[in-house]
Design brief:
CATH class: Mainly Beta
Number of strands: 7
Strand content: 35-45%
Number of helices: 1
Strand order of the largest sheet: 6-5-7
Largest sheet: 3 strands, antiparallel
CATH topology: Ribosomal Protein L24e, Chain: T
Helix content: under 10%
Structural class: mainly beta
Radius of gyration: 20 Å
Number of domains: 1
Order of helices and strands: EEEEEEHE
């Protein structure tokens, strides 16, 4: 099963690591220079929780944001 929230559909997202060298101009330097970008992955905070869904108890994979906002009721 995918690493995805069953309530909101939040999943993994690809991005870049951006290394920056040098002191920024704002702090008195000559400016920052970007190095070679490399790929990285942003993973959501997915939890397996026993939840009360439509009167039945089942285990669901949900993100911490949905759990905190009260979109599901923990058993």
């Amino acid at each position: 099963m995918a690493r995805r929230c069953e309530i909101c559909g939040k999943g993994t997202v690809a991005g870049n690591n951006v290394p920056r060298k040098g002191q920024p101009k704002k702090k008195g330097g000559v400016g920052q220079h970007i190095g070679v970008k490399s790929k990285r992955v942003f993973k959501p905070n997915i939890l397996k929780v026993k939840a009360n869904m439509n009167g039945t108890v089942r285990t669901v994979k949900i993100c911490a944001r949905c759990l905190k906002s009260g979109k599901v009721e923990k058993v």
